[in-house]
Write a structure and sequence with these properties.
Heme Oxygenase, Chain A, Aminopyrimidine aminohydrolase, mitochondrial, seven-stranded parallel β-sheet, 23 helices, three-stranded antiparallel β-sheet, alpha/beta, HAD-like_sf, HAD_sf, hydrolase activity, Thiaminase-2/PQQC, 9% strand
Length: 561
């Protein structure tokens, strides 16, 4: 499954940078080239075109290592870099024979692609000391200055090796051993080999060693070079010519005329990085504290900040306790062997009743009374989003390849909070479907206008939106969520994407025969079906939901790099 484990803080700079820019590596998995390669359906001409570029990469690596060896001050470091250069030269010499071992024959002549040239030019410029933003360019005098340039050179090589190691292992993980007839498996195995991993690790270890004596500014340069190398390598992968039909990205596969994409999203913890109820609690407590300081009796803020904080805490604890009891009650039935949508709907009625009672408790407590509409909007404007979320929504709404719209379906009590959170960026006005807080003047009454309390409410809104589109051309629906309340919409959408799959959500889904498949693995299967003459379209109610770890994966799947 695609994902990264936590890395200790004392890891070397190479590992820290790899983890920091992990989203870029995830995006590479969703390029048409990699998906077709993993499915074994990639046209051999496309494959040979790609590996024909290896010679230009290897030549650049060899020259860069030669310069780095001259820069290195330590004999041990020089020997290590010399060994790296020898391995590159050996691979250059044996390239044709190696490709034959994989079952292919390289074209007799090739030209350097522009995407290849952008990376090799960048690498050779870096190795020659032409580093953007570097002070004192051209003045390489002391051993420390030379060591710095050796580190810079390795920082422009390390991410390429690590990226290919990562991609090959992810591809290898989705191959089915007993069924695998992937004609590129030998090439994949080569990149998955212990020797390839050892080479990647040697470069990273030496980069770590050479970076120990660097200043903070110089480490910033290392980071910029590492990131630039990663981006250029991703551009190379994305630029590979594909002549066949592919399953991804969605927005680049459709004919503009008559095609529609509707993206549905949950809000709390899907778009936002914090729960909206906690933000509204903060607004209420701050308003009460201000009233306490002013030593006046507000007609709206009726209890002290301390009492209000205690009330919120009690409501939260009670909600969590009773929610867990409700889920356990649902889980008491036997696990079914196949997808049971009707059984899931019946079970979720219990959850719907619970959510309605929970909202009633909030209203009766009065904790939502006396909140300023201005304060709610201000909190929304400063709300922290999940990394990459806004970029996806902007990209979908700005797509020129199809008619697209975005709808937010949320249990959030305040539509104003959601709308203001999106208004703070470059996003146009989104379609928000949520509960609302009624006002007297510009202050909340404490009541909730209940529009979205249950999975059924979300599904009703989902269906109503689709009906409003009519039957004008082909329509693709994508739903992104991560809570139990999203289940019915996730299953009804053509593509249901669970972001940050929790153990509880998975356990409940499996109870009713729902399968959770990593999105990359699902795309590989879909690409294989397409190549075999099957239907290339997505369809809902299959009982399969696709999992991702970040919005970066959704961006790559929907919009491409």
């Amino acid at each position: 499954m695609v994902g990264f484990q936590a890395v200790p803080d004392d890891g070397g700079i190479a590992r820290r940078l790899w983890v920091k820019f992990k989203n870029e590596s995830l995006c590479a998995l969703y390029t048409p080239f990699v998906v077709c390669l993993a499915s074994g359906t990639l046209d051999s001409i496309s494959f040979l075109h790609c590996i024909s570029q290896d010679v230009y990469f290897l030549q650049a690596f060899a020259h860069a290592y030669e310069l780095a060896e001259d820069y290195a001050d330590d004999d041990e470091d020089k020997e290590a870099i010399r060994g790296m250069r020898k391995r590159v030269l050996r691979k250059l010499k044996d390239q044709d024979d190696l490709v034959r071992e994989w079952g292919f024959e390289l074209p007799k002549a090739s030209t350097c692609d522009s995407a290849t040239a952008r990376y090799t030019d960048f690498l050779l410029a870096t190795a020659a000391g032409k580093v953007e933003g570097e002070k004192g360019r051209g003045k390489i005098v002391t051993p420390f200055e030379k060591t710095r340039l050796a580190a810079y050179t390795l920082s422009a090589i390390a991410p390429c090796m690590r990226l290919y190691s990562f991609l090959s292992k992810e591809i290898k993980a989705v191959l089915v051993p007993e069924e695998s007839n992937n004609i590129y498996e030998r090439w994949i195995d080569c990149l998955c080999s212990e020797s390839f991993e050892a080479n990647a690790s040697r470069i990273e270890d030496l980069l770590d060693k050479l970076s120990v004596t660097l200043t903070g500014e110089e480490l910033d340069v290392v980071e910029k070079l590492y990131h630039q190398a990663m981006k250029l390598e991703l551009e190379f992968i994305s630029a590979q010519p594909i002549t066949q039909s592919t399953i991804t990205p969605i927005t680049q596969l459709q004919e503009p005329a008559g095609c529609n994409l509707t993206l549905f999203c949950d809000f709390d913890m899907t778009c936002s990085a914090v729960d909206s109820s906690a933000l509204l609690a903060d607004v209420a407590i701050i308003a009460a504290a201000k009233s306490d300081l002013d030593d006046c009796e507000s007609p709206y803020v009726h209890i002290s900040a301390a009492d209000l904080r205690a009330t919120w805490s009690n409501l939260s604890s009670k909600y969590i306790e009773e929610y867990e009891q409700c889920i356990e009650s649902i889980m008491s039935s036997e696990t079914v062997g196949k997808f049971d949508y009707e059984g899931l709907c019946k079970a979720l009625v219990q959850l719907s009743d619970f959510e309605s009672r929970a909202n009633d408790m909030v209203v009766h407590s009065g904790v939502l009374r006396g909140l300023s509409q201005e304060d709610i909007k201000r909190v929304g404007e400063h709300l922290i989003f999940q990394n990459g979320c806004k970029n996806v929504l902007q990209g979908v709404l700005g797509s020129e390849n199809m008619h697209a719209d975005v709808h937010i379906l949320s249990y959030c009590w305040s539509g104003d909070l959601i709308r203001s959170s999106f208004s703070s960026g470059a996003l146009p006005v989104l379609n928000v479907h949520s509960n609302e807080l009624p006002y007297e003047g510009s202050v909340t009454t404490g009541d909730i206008i209940k529009k979205m309390e249950s999975p059924m409410d979300k599904l009703q809104a989902f269906n109503d939106i689709l009906k409003s589109h009519g039957n004008n051309g082909k329509h693709t629906t994508v739903y992104v969520g991560g809570s139990v309340g999203d289940f019915l919409c996730l299953l009804s959408a053509d593509v249901g994407i669970v972001i940050g799959l929790s153990a509880g959500l998975k356990r409940l889904g499996v109870q009713f025969g729902i399968s959770f498949v990593p999105l990359f693995s699902g795309l590989v299967t879909k690409q294989r079906e397409l190549a075999e003459g099957g239907c290339s379209g997505w369809r809902g109610m299959s009982g399969i939901l696709y999992t991702v770890s970040s919005w970066a994966e959704i961006h790559a799947f929907v919009l491409g790099l």
